[in-house]
Amino acid sequence: MSERLTIQIQPQDNVAVAVHDLPAGTVTESGVTTLQAIPQAHKVALRDIPRGGEIVRYGVVLGYAKDAIPAGSWINEHMLDLPESPSVANLPYGTNLVPMADLPDPPRATWLGYRNKTGPAGTRNLLGIVTTVQCAAGVVRAAVERIRRELLPQYPNVDGVVAVTHPYGCGVAINAPLAPIPIRAITNVIRHPNFGGEIMVVGLGCEKLTYDRVLPPEDITPENVLTLQDWNGHDAMMQAILDMAEKKLRKLNLRTREELPLSELLIGMQCGGSDAFSGITANPSAGYAADMLVKGGGTVLFSEVTEVRDGVQMLAARCPDEHTRDRLAEEMTWYDDYLAAGGVDRDANPTPGNKKGGLANIVEKAMGSIAKSGTSPIVEVLSPAEKPTRHGLIYAATPASDIVCGPSQVASGIGLQVFMTGRGTPYGLDIAPVIKVCSRNELKNHWFDLIDISAGDVATGEKTIAQVGTEIFNFILDVASGVREPYSDQYGFHNDMCIFNPAPIT
Ligand code: CA
Description:
With 506 residues, the chain is of the alpha/beta class.
């Protein structure tokens, strides 16, 4: 078998992507000779494209040629005009509902998790100490260091202690129309499935985010909340936090993993540092794993509004009813308005690294990004940080920013996140493990001990999407069951809890 040089996704595409750096004069599979060097992951024109002509990849118009492009040319991000954003009005729905029977069968039907009284099970058994305000963050972080050192070794069934510190809580317009978004994130993270229902909230005492905004009255008790301003100096304050933590650790230590159906598992999908391979290898493989989970009764969130906006019609086609379609349109419109208020549009999303990785614009990025949702119907649409009420594939609207999407999905209750990357990121979360899947074998070779799984063999033709998708599925279940740790957890590489706050800071 001769080495694969380019990948064309759909027969109607007039571009293909270079599998490796291709020198000028390379004759590609489609018979086109490259007129110049084509960098890996970048596009080569398969036909002459006139000025103003469509540039088509994934069977989708990525943009219009600013000038005539001869066959064999390198097409870079400077050569396309961006098409109009697709309208969200009256999108057809239910026109692409893949029947459950057509989804791939999961190779395993159970996993080992920590069952909760309600909602999804935990993938880890953690003590989560949640601050109501950033002012308390330093104290809580210092206390958590001491809890880890002095208390945790006596409670072997507890996997860890997490200081949930975030930038919200005071100096904010707490009654602003958009304030419910960050408040919901904090409210829901207090009850994250990995915290086992043990509530531990630390406030300062004079902040705007009072306990009653994040807890029901019956939970605002001395066992659950601690106010720093109530304590007489450093030593008493620290001791109070340690005493409270110890009571929680005693209860958490009684929890054990048990065999559970996939319906008790809730995970999230995200991508970041994407390249033009993300949509060919890593994201479709993750989508295959998502399909397996959904078929087995599990729940999968995918997000990142600006990275699906250009494929909204494809997502609407996968909504089974009018209500879900309307909710999808509502979230897209909200984000369009949010970006417009900030003086930008969706094409502000791609990064220099995305472009270096061959992604010409947001349309091309979106087509790759959507692939991680697999093919199953979208059964629910959530606003940022909302908890799902259904099982299956769910669209949870969040910013596409890696550092904000992660905490939003955590607030929605994910037990772990699968993170696809083309350029490479050491991203991790301390509340939910993050599995890193890369799109190219070059990255896996470069970051051999940072990336968990490579989907690069799909590009070279050595593996199928089904094979890598099954590997990802098994990796998800192993990590969820606590028998395997992704690299980010082995090293303790954990990003901050950057919750989404679109509301004014005062
Ligand atoms: Ca992202």
